[in-house]
Amino acid sequence: MTEDVLTLILAGGVGSRLSPLTSHRAKPAVPFGGQYRIIDFALSNCLHSGLRRILVLPQYKSHSLNKHLRDGWSVFNPSLGEYITPIPPQMRTDDSWYQGTADAIYQNLFLLERSGAKYVVVLSGDHIYRMDYAELINVHKFMEADATVACMAVDRKLASSFGVVEVDNQLRIVDFEEKPASPQPMPDHPDKAMASMGVYVFSIDILIDTLRNDSTKADSTRDFGCDILPRLIKEKDVVAYQFGTANGRVSTDGYWRDVGTLDSYYDANMDLLRPLPPIDLYQPDWMIRTAITQNPPARTVSGPTGIEPRLINSIISPGAIVAGGIVVNSILSPNVRVDEGAHVFDSVLFDGVSVGTGARVSRCIVEKGVKIPPGIILDYDSVAESGDCVISDNGVIVIPQGYCEWGRHSARSSEESDDSESLALHAASFSS
After folding, report:
1. Are 397 and 383 in contact (CB under 8 A)?
2. What is the pLDDT of residues 198-218, one digit of tens each?
3. How far apart (Å, rounded) are the C-alpha atoms in residues 357 and 12?
4. Is 380 annotated as a binding residue?
């Protein structure tokens, strides 16, 4: 265990761009990949990296997150100085909730001061990636830095969506700009830019002093990217840690995704279904831990009239049953049921979803516990006509909790489409 390090996981964002998935839960508690929650990735990285003094800073709709931490992450031993503790806003500095990422930590400075730590690792609880934080901390110590920012190389044409750092040949950061219109290129790669991942290491005294100073500035937004980093870069020694190239224990797949929008969330789930997934969830000594509920094994079984199930290029979680249905390129969370003649294409189904006989679901994210009536088609055309569901910019449909009978009247019947032709097209796409 890295005893001189305190880890803070920021988990307080509203997550409005992920609505309605965040209507009843915090963004880090949103399900991912069938059996995980988004925060499991940061927490698993901590576990494998030997970071076992962890404070999680939630704020909005935190019950689901707190329950998940209790059920899945009560694994550390307090008698050894290990803990994962959620710290909601306590109004210690004023009467406001957390006003930004930096303010969330500023309001809890007393925890940093009494921790006895020399270094603070600051993480976001809503990113999908695997990283050896121990290697990041080693780089911070070796470079004798005041702050270290984990960065990744991205195409310059995409870098305007990130906070972009400018580095010298020794990877010392000389400038930082949040979402620049013209990103600064890397010294040796003019077509690339160095983007911040929202993963930081600070020498604790530097962080405390900087946050106190920031709290006195009336024009500050209390944000790491907008306020803290630019100030530190001008005044202190800040270095960049290049993600995916160091010699940490985790395999260097270099995968990192901010799943802050419905489309980025959907795409990251679909990444798991590629023939060779870009993120390695199967490294034996770097597994992603989660809360495992007691469920029977997943299974496929013939339907009541003997129709055989078909499962193509999909993830099926414990307790899920495909009873004569067809599932293609989809993710079924625990306790999902797909009944005879039902078709599920390119979709993510949360815990306890049932798809009725003959129904069809295409490019959907279906919320927990939704019961899809028999014979209904849920695709872009039918849902767009009804106006009852959220549709992302790229046409992904979110079927919210509370969906039930409206589909009988507003969605098309499965009798209106040729499912056999559609299945053939889907199957062909995965055999090529």
Report:
1. yes
2. 999 999 999 999 999 888 887
3. 40
4. no
User: How confident is the model over 371-384, as pLDDT tens digits?
Assistant: 999 999 999 988 87
- Region 293-309 average pLDDT: 93
E strands of 204-283, at which residues?
A: 238-242, 256-258
Check the annotation: does 368 bind a ligand.
no
pLDDT at residue 423 is higher than 60? no
**74 annotated ligand-binding residue:** no
Question: Does the annotation list 182 as a binding residue?
Answer: no
d(CA 171, CA 136): 13
* 115 assigned ligand-binding residue: no
Crossing angle of helices 39-49/133-142, nearest 10°? 60
Residue type, 38: I
Vertex 290, ends 289 and 296: CA angle to 5°?
Answer: 115
Helices 39-49 and 63-72 cross at an angle (nearest 10°) of 40
pLDDT at residue 415 tops 60: no
For position 406, what pLDDT does the model report?
Answer: 46
CA distance 284 to 249: 11
Domains of the chain are 5-271 (3.90.550.10), 299-431 (2.160.10.10)
Separation CA 161–CA 146 (nearest Å)? 26
